[in-house]
Amino acid sequence: RQGNRVKWRTGGRYAVQPGRTQKGVGRIQLLDIRYQHLGNITEEEARAEGFSGLAEFSRAWIKIHGRFDSEQPVWVLEFRLVE
Questions:
Q1: N or C: which end of the chain has fewer CB within 10 A?
Q2: How far is Cα 11 from Cα 21, in angstroms, rounded to an integer?
Q3: How far apart are CA 37 and CA 5, in angstroms?
Q4: Coarse DSSP helix, strand, coil percentages of the chain, rounded to the nearest 5 percent
Q5: What is the rounded CA–CA span in Å between residue 44 and residue 57?
Q6: pTM of this prediction?
Q7: What is the pLDDT of residues 11-65, one digit of tens each?
Q8: Taking the mean position of all CA atoms in its chain, how far away is CA 40?
Q9: Distance CA 45, CA 55 (A)
């Protein structure tokens, strides 16, 4: 939420922008929003994120965030390309 406004809604369609102020390059439809712990990511989900598997995903996470805490809460947004 942003104030009283809901920013993301399941079923909504949103522009894909390479940067905050840049023009959209496509559109997605948001299929699901859920909360999970980082340690619950599956091999399949890691591959869907563009990694070869969990090990590569974990290394990238550590490089970006400094550590991999399996109890860390994360939001998972599933979407499909519509344009």
A1: N
A2: 24
A3: 26
A4: 25, 35, 40
A5: 11
A6: 0.74
A7: 999 999 988 889 989 999 999 999 999 999 999 999 999 999 999 999 999 999 9
A8: 14
A9: 12
